[in-house]
Amino acid sequence: MESNDLYTTCLRCGRQLKTARSRQLGMGPTCAKKMKDEREKQQQMKLFEVQGENFLDELKNRKSASA
Questions:
Q1: Which residues of 16-32 are buried (b: 16+ CB within 10 A; e: fewer)?
Q2: What does the pLDDT read at residue 52?
Q3: Phi and psi of 3, rounded to 5°?
Q4: Whether the Cβ atoms of residue 10 and residue 17 lie closer than 8 Å to each other
Q5: What is the model's pLDDT at position 2?
Q6: Between the chain's N and C termini, which has fewer beta carbons within 10 Å?
């Protein structure tokens, strides 16, 4: 697709796009925000996750190593 080509419908939900910016991006602001939030959630590190090891397991390992 060339830079001057525009989308007419949202690539995510299929609704008709109204603004020039939305037609350039291929989705409206609501779908763009939802997609951004989903991407961030996938990349977010889980609480207490440390390089594949559970935080509580790490504490147990430290405790047993010091005993």
A1: ebeeeebbebbbbeebb
A2: 60
A3: -65, -25
A4: yes
A5: 47
A6: C
